[in-house]
Design a protein that fits this description.
The protein is mainly β. The protein has a single domain, classed as Jelly Rolls, CATH 2.60.120.10. Helix content is 0%, strand content 57%. The chain contains no helices and nine strands. The two termini are 23 Å apart.
Length: 99
């Protein structure tokens, strides 16, 4: 067992993106954004799951907007183009999983 800390980073700085864990077939990232901050369009070569721990984030996936909150989870297939925009101060876990 390993407890992984994802402390709130936005007290002292703006946007925070950092890898918090990696295993043979997966990486886990933590993204923290203040309201109005964004991550530009990009893609990933793996399956991606987005879990919002706090706040609300709008993803645009292949041109289609979708709101992700603590009440839902987003799954994206490999190579789907996506960007994100923080509708509120947000804390997001990104799981990138290889096949």
């Amino acid at each position: 067992m390993k407890l992984i800390d994802t402390k709130y980073q936005l007290k002292d700085k703006e946007k925070h993106v950092g890898k918090v864990a990696g295993v043979e077939h997966a990486d886990v990232l933590n993204i923290q954004l203040r309201k109005g901050e964004e991550v530009a369009e990009h893609d990933a070569d793996r399956e991606v799951f987005i879990i919002v721990k706090r706040g609300r984030v709008q993803f645009t996936v292949e041109g289609e907007p979708v709101e992700v909150t603590p009440d839902n989870m987003l799954h994206m297939a490999p190579l789907e183009k996506h960007s994100l925009y923080a509708l509120e101060d947000s804390d997001v876990v990104v799981m990138k999983i290889a096949k």
